[in-house]
Design brief:
- It is built from 9 helices and 7 strands, in the order βααβαβαβαβαβααβα.
- The protein is α/β, with parallel strands linked by helices.
- It has a single domain (about 5-245), classed as Alpha-Beta Complex (Spore Coat Polysaccharide Biosynthesis Protein SpsA, Chain A).
- The radius of gyration is 17 Å and the shape is globular.
- It has a 7-stranded mixed β-sheet, sandwiched between helices.
């Protein structure tokens, strides 16, 4: 592999034995192995307690260009951030273990980077198969997000995003100053994480391409309707407050 691969794929992982056994990581590796560009996979274990780490270490030992970062439990945002700072690729992609948006959708992102965009953001249409409450939450957040942040991205929450190395490192450096990694307890999917990194990208002047992608609903116990709605609104207001009070440094 080149010293600087074209693509770094970051997968944050917390207690994902079922998805691992369904072969999700095998599909990621098989796709990348068939590509003409160089690549690496960075599996960020977020302090899993269910045997995930052992499975990841065995996977890495038998699959070339794959490595494991073993972090204490800090949540998805911290896991992605750690992966970004450990990556060597010209393009940095983060994607979910369940592959709700399959890795093959990266083919659509390559054109955006060829055209000079700094970020490519997966955009889901209608979220087929998702429970009604999740669709209500999604559409409600679009309205509130537009009113509060004027962020011109319709689907901020799709867990399939890519950056140029320059953009990713600058965005996550600023993000880390506001959100230093620290140990937590219990599952943690911060609904404001995706919005904040996109808001920072826009403030920094990076060009964002919103790219339609395939998406299949995957059951998860980490999405809680009322809690996530309240947390999401709180995060939007905090992002706006930080911006108005010049908290962000870059």
């Amino acid at each position: 592999m080149d010293k600087e691969p074209y693509l770094s794929v970051i997968i944050p992982i917390y207690n994902e034995v079922p998805n691992f056994r369904r072969g999700s990581l095998n599909r990621v590796h098989s796709y990348l192995a068939s590509q003409p560009f160089s690549w690496e996979i960075i599996l960020v274990n977020d302090g899993s307690t269910d045997g995930t780490l052992s499975l990841l270490q065995n996977f890495s030992a038998t699959h070339p260009h794959t490595r494991v970062l073993d972090n204490p439990h800090q949540g998805k945002a911290a896991s992605v951030m750690a992966g970004v700072f450990a990556s060597a690729g010209q393009i940095i992609l983060f994607t979910d273990t369940d592959q709700a948006t399959p890795i093959t959708e990266f083919d659509k992102f390559r054109e955006a980077f060829t055209r000079g965009f700094d970020l490519a953001v997966g955009s889901r249409s209608g979220r087929p198969g998702a429970p009604v409450f999740r669709q209500i939450l999604a559409y409600g957040m679009i309205i509130v997000r537009t009113l509060i942040l004027r962020l011109p991205v319709r689907d901020t929450q799709c867990g399939f995003k890519a950056f140029t190395s320059q953009a990713g490192r600058k965005i996550f450096t600023a993000f880390s100053l506001v959100h230093p990694a620290r140990p937590i307890s219990g599952p943690a999917v911060n609904p404001g994480f995706d919005v904040e990194i996109l808001y920072l990208a826009r403030k920094m002047g990076f060009k964002i391409a919103e790219v339609p992608v395939l998406w299949t609903h995957q059951e998860t116990k980490r999405v809680r309707f009322f809690h996530d709605a309240v947390s999401g609104l709180k995060e939007l207001l905090l992002i706006r407050y930080r911006s108005l009070t010049h908290v962000y440094r870059y």
